[in-house]
Amino acid sequence: MSDYGIAVATGWTALRAAIIAPWAVFAAGVIVAEFRRTSPAGRRWLWGLLLASILSPDLVAGYGYSNFSVSLARHSLWNELFLALLIGLKAAAVAAAVLYFTPDPALSPSGRHLLRLSRSRVAAFERFRLLVAHGPVARGLPAFAIAFLFAFQQFELPSLTGITAWTVTLFDRQALLPDLADSADPLTWPLAVELLALAPVILFVVRAIASGRRSVAPFVATARSRVAAWATLFLMVSLTAVVPFAILARQGATGFGYLATNAPNVAAYWKEIGIAAGYGVSSAAIASVAAVGLLKLVSLSKPPAIGVALLVLACVPGLCGAMVPSLVAVECLQHPLLLGLRDTLVPLIVVLALFLLPRALLLESLARLLRDGQAIHLARGLRMSPVSVQQRAGRSLLWTLEGFGRFCRFSLLAYWGYLDLTAATILSPPGVVPVTARLYNLMHYGHNAALSAMTLVAVAVPVAGFLIVLFLRRLTLRVIAR
Amino acid sequence: MKTCRRRRAGIETTRLVPLHPFARFASFAFPFFVCFRLFRGSLRRVRIHSLAAFVVLGLVGCFGGNDDALVVYCSHDAVFSQQILDDFTRETGIPVAARFDTEATKSLGLINLIVRESKAPRCDVFWNNETLGTIDLAKRGLTEPYQGSGFKRIPSSFKDPDGLWCGFAARLRVWIVNTNQMKPSADVVRSAFNLRIQDFTYAKPLYGTTLTHYCVLWSTLAPDVCQSIDHMLREEATTAASNGQTRDLVANGTCAFGWTDTDDYFGAVDSGKPVGMVPVRLAGGQTICIPNSVAIIKGTKRREAAESLVDYLLSREVELRLAKSESRQIPLGDIGDAELPVEVAELVPWAAKGIDLSEAAAVRTDVLTWLTETYTN
């Protein structure tokens, strides 16, 4: 496979992402305006809808729509447009989440007005530069870059719906070529695009850290934009979560019998779920520790630029997606000194931790932004009380203020680690393959009831695990209280 | 390094003894513990996380791999092969760690992985769902000869004379036809291939049995004829990602007919789809019969266990089991028609007319080079 093939696939995927990203940011702006307008209870619903779309696994959507895509095999343009719509809706959800927390631009509305008034004194280029670098454009840049990267890095959806993407081409290429070095060279194309897209995010993060600004500016929601926001949200949740899960549930209804009766295969399946959970939890633990440590280093570093540079460097591999660091790891593992690690789980867990690190940093930063330090301090004081009732109350308060959030952040990271497909497929040693890799393999044989049921159960397990831990915690507290 | 003996089911294996679990725990967890100690002063708040990660990493190190297991790279459908490998473990006590590849790139992905790892092989036995790739590995000197009990029961046309690989349980390349749109007869599909090519579908020929199909066309027709057929297909027919997708396209009526394998065809039949099939026949009347193949990989450290798996796979019982499975593989050794499912028994005479794949194997590299250029540019 020549570099030309990868270059064309990269160009095509970049073009698709470049078309999707502005639309996603526009849709995100409309959704965020609705966020700001609505009541706290309504906001919770909106967050629920956004998260349903963001957290709905691509594997489910890809498998759910694969038959539909097959029916469009002779109309590839329609298939391409449908996939672009799916990716665009998910990218809009991600962009909305980013935009919601993006700090306000340095140039306030009054500043912009003054800039307009000073037309005669400030050169046109300088005015343009100020508007782009410090005005409303700057506010949308991180959301645009993240939406672009999200669309650019898609793997499961294009792979299962038969659409061109550099990730699929590269994934096949690393399987097709006996010499892995031949498949590492073309990494330069997608890497160049990814780093180009990352530049505005990095610039913005560096500036935001330096300025310490928070997002408070009101978004103006008109009647028309409200309709657009709810229509987008409806489409988003329906197409990316509800419909694929409904397809699987309808097909899987008869497949649950298979899970109940086919003991040998099901035992292997549960083992693979356990393996995936192990990968997810261990990589999430490492990413969480690294995120806290890195943020601490950034706050302690003098001059601050060193800490920021360290932060950016640590994030770059993860922001390039799971496939790029996985291929680099495979290449590194050919070295005689590292060959001993090849058959262990260490490479996969390290790559997954790197992949999760930017997300862990983002979640940790957001948690600190929203943290109520005074209340936590008071709750800690209450926990130290000699009176046992007050101690319990303090513990309960601390859980509400701090512990629950930490648990949710950790669970979210573990969920992403659990669902990872590319790193697991490339790096997992024989016999220790996680359930996602197995399901992805089986999905290429087409739809069947057992596979739909297996996919549903595999997605339900982490959710059930999350709820069980919460339930056990509550149960333990009740027992202690008695 | 020390060795130990295993005596189960009359099998004696020599294997490396892994590190003591505690030593493994320490080797994985110690570096992390050092980092934790170094940063302890500045990272007071992360102690619980650190402790959790320390324990998890240590446990991962402890239970991360199974040095004992026979490593099998398998490109046969995991749904069927996993059960057979599990039964092998149950019967012999030899644990198996299997690596399956994705449907899209199998078996080529695993073949290239074996080539890539040839300096430090980790695969002991390669169970390929086709033959040409295994022949290629044998040519590269990456397989070891073995002629055990199973080898002897397979006809000579389906195995290497030196025992570098051996075939078993075959599939046929067939025309799959949507019976609502076309009659499943040889004349009809041949005429449709000339007149209705826009209704035809085939899997991307870079991988698997479609690659074998192309190699056979390349070796039996002239290369330029094969290239012109492919050009016509790329221009006018529908290219699917896999044989499974080809089956779905025909079964759902999106395309009227296509090329696939018997196991995919039977998958559509079992789903109640309106499909029929006609074996692909070459100018000389031969069919394209593609056996599974098995080989011991050069440099294996578990030779005796590998031999026992090869014997197991080539046994009558496994061939019969694969024949009775949903994939209806055609046995190559003598089974006795009485026990064979009717639809498999009907395929046995077709399989006997299978073309000798050695010529196709000789041109595989040329075909693959051409296809790689054609389909990835």
What would you note in describing this structure?
The complex is a heterodimer of chains A (482) and B (377). The longest helix of chain A has 38 residues, at 263-300. Chain A folds into two domains: 1-252, MetI-like fold, CATH 1.10.3720; 261-482, Orthogonal Bundle (MetI-like fold). The mean pLDDT of chain A is 83. By secondary structure, chain A is an all-alpha fold. Chain A is 81% helix and 0% strand. The N and C termini of chain A lie far apart (68 Å). Chain A contains 22 helices and no strands. Chain A has helices at residues 3-37, 40-55, 58-71, 76-101, 109-117, 124-134, 136-152, 156-161, 166-176, 180-184, 188-211, 223-252, 256-261, 263-300, 304-319, 323-332, 346-370, 373-383, 388-419, 422-427, 435-443, 449-481. By secondary structure, chain B is an alpha/beta fold. Chain B contains 15 helices and twelve strands. Chains A and B meet through helix 1, helix 3, helix 9, helix 14 and helix 21 of A and helix 2, strand 3, helix 3, strand 4 and helix 4 of B.
**In CATH, what is the class of the largest domain in chain A?**
Mainly Alpha
**CATH class assignment of the largest domain in chain B:** Alpha Beta
How many strand units of chain B?
12
Do you know the CATH topology of the largest domain in chain B? Answer: D-Maltodextrin-Binding Protein, domain 2
User: With helices defined by DSSP (H or I, 4 residues minimum), what is the helix count of chain B?
Assistant: 15
- Stretches of chain A where pLDDT falls below 50 for ≥5 residues? none
Shape of chain A: globular
Distance between the termini of chain B: 50 Å
Shape of chain B, please?
A: globular
Q: CATH superfamily name of the largest domain in chain B? A: Periplasmic binding protein-like II
